# Entry
Amino acid sequence: MSKYTEDDLREELKTKEYEYGFYTDIESEKFPNGVNEDIVRAISKKKNEPEWMTEWRLEAFRVWLKMEEPEWANVHYKKPSFQDISYYSAPKKKPKLNSLDEVDPEMLATFEKLGISLLEQKRLANVAIDIVMDSVSVATTFKETLAEKGIIFMPISEAIQEHPELVKKYIGSVVPTTDNFYAALNSAVFSDGSFCYIPKGVRCPMELSTYFRINESGTGQFERTLVVADKGSYVSYLEGCTAPQRDENQLHAAVVELIALDDAEIKYSTVQNWFPGDAEGKGGVFNFVTKRGICENNAKISWTQVETGSAVTWKYPSCILKGNNSVGEFYSIAVTNNYQQADTGTKMIHLGKNTKSTIISKGISAGKSQNSYRGLVQIGSRAENARNFSQCDSLLMGNECGAHTFPYIETKNKSAQIEHEATTSKIGEDQLFYCNQRGIDTEKAIALIVNGFSKEVLNKLPMEFAVEAQKLLEISLEGSVG
Amino acid sequence: MELKDKLISSYVAFENGVNINSDVHEIRSKALQNFEDLGFPTKKLEAWKYTSLNSVLKEDYSIFPKAEKAIELADVKEYFIDDIDTFKIVFIDGKYSSFLSDTTHDNMDVCLLSSALTKPKYKAVIENYFNKIAKQDNLTSLNTAFANEGAYIYIPKNVEVEKPIQIVNFTTGAENATMLQPRNLIVAERNSHVQIIERHQSLTDNAALTNAVTEIFVDTHANVDYYKIQNDNINASLVDNTYVEQQKEGICSVHTFSFGGNITRNNLNFYQKGEYIDSILKGITIIEGKQHVDHHTLVHHIEPNCESHQDYKGIYGDRSTGVFNGKVVVEKEAQKTNAYQQNNNVLISDKATINAKPQLEIFADDVKCSHGCTIGQLDDQALFYMQQRGIPKKEANALLMYAFANTVLESVKIPEVKKRITNIIADKLGVDIGFDL
# Structure
């Protein structure tokens, strides 16, 4: 094999299945529906977890029992029954199809528009594919590259076995088990997730990604991600996938914890495109996610998200700016169409001196959907010279949807400088006319305007992702304009 | 006994003094029931997240203060805007003071709610308007239950009231802490115009709690210009609930100047029930010590082509707390709405707190809505510039703060009110300069 560059590696990784022990042979087993202490114990045992982990889960479970589902969010749905869910089952075996001809043509059309390679189309649609030629060597190269730098990137269940000291130190340190209803439930029953550790001073050479793992549907439901960037390190982490995920799980309650130690930087990008329910608002995924990061001195955490899927989204990626001179950023595009509901935003908690945060949130609502921004900017009494800039823009398409903003600003320090701006608008007829005049049809013109509206956020996504996300926006809004 | 129980049990005594066989009394009884179910607001309610009344509710208030105490005009002169001719409706401990008042019944009604509620002459107006827009929430219900006295202002069609009307509530409670629940009803018929200045003033060092409700109806083309001056002494707390309903092309502006008092909570609600309406909500808050001021506004855009303008400025010193919770709702039908909301705050002390929640809920697509909220400091360079030119630091500071608040003052239409506010600000900032430079 000739010279093998990192780009080649990345390219190939994208087109192959991830296969590092992510898969335990548990096919024959499925736990009965419902959750109780025995189930939690059994999950823990299944994972062969050490005693402290079992205890940690149980503690979370006991807390969860006393908690109530939050109702403050601006979303309305029929609450899932937590005793009707099986909390541990073998990854669902989707029927293997023999060729692309058997795949739902609508899905194929979407793939086509996203420009996903044929090979990947097969993978996503669960068509049996031949093993890619160099797969083993590629996988090894990938693992070697990371190992060379001392980077740990593995399923969290493995990390609990292999690096218990790290997991024990950091898990629950940012999102405590008592944090909220869904976080507590997740802590008790999480099945798997990712663990990532970047050692001191290391710049992770590639975008770490769960992209190629997501096809393991059984683990997605209660996922737990823990990213630790040690002093002076840098990592960019991608989560999710632009391709539509026909996931059957109604409820997703994931927890993501980021820890950026002194001078470290974490960039966390998410593209979420789960099944949003059909045009009548039936079905669809409930996405209740707790994401939070903590910044030590001079550290930086940047959240970027593109949310186009799920029937109900409840998600507030947050930053605790604990260290002096730390920086938190939040860039978000949330698109809702048909009957989707999104209540999303961020919390920026300024505790250290000279901390800075930026919030750019773009909400696009179409159809009969409801899109809310809910954010908190809090300046502690010791956070001298804190600086925040927030901007929430909403774009409405049609008069049956709604856009809402609920910004909370709490300041206890006189040296704080906070600016908050919000605007709501629609696509101007003059803008459309201008495009039409120049031979751009209305559908394309809208895509153009929406892209312009979202540019600030799209620019923050890693390159390959940005291109796909852009197309995704187009598809999500297709047919929404009359 | 807890204040809630005390209020509920004193209702029987209250009933002795009013006509209990009336429609109005039915409304009262229902409201009492409502209050009994809801109780006083706690911090657990989203609307009261940042304001706790606990410290205020602990006092042992007398609910029916004794008969009117004599007050000499000279003692309270300073609380009136007296350099222009005005109508005055003055209450002392909730009782009408004919001696201090100056009212009229010529071609309009500037009189008392107690007589409006009982005399047949007013029956039609009361039936149409009384308690029609006041919310069924806890404190408004409490006021409704005990609603009996307050200002009643009725401006018939095409009448332009030639001088402003002052509504002043004094609290004297020399021996006891006093709780007052004034209830005002203001109806401005088609094409009419009226200016109103409202003030609550405690004359005692004992604690005072006022839970006021004002309903304002602005008919087609009518114009109501309302000023609230809140510069009470430090033991007095105020919950001021104001509800405004506007009809087609009506204009209503409410200016709230909060400088005094212990805990002040302003619930200001606008409902736009016609097209081409303009609603203006403005306020200046300058507080210090442990004062707490909470502005809670709602503008409900129900019909198309309307506008609303909100502008609130706050300057917070010492350990004071400021809250701004502004909500704009734009209904599906309310296309072409222009809604602006601006909230700027300056913290001048490390212990002061500001909590802001500018909220938008929009269901219509062809609208222009924006809100801006800032928290910052006075510009050091500007201060330096002025000091360089011989303006002492204190005065320079005051000038900057005055300039900061000026966008609100500019829209005050009664020059004497503007002057009065300017003087209060100068006094607050401890400077002796005329700002009309």
Remarks:
- Residues 3-273 of chain B form one domain.
- Chain B touches chain A through 35 residues (CB under 8 Å).
- Chain B has a mean pLDDT of 89.
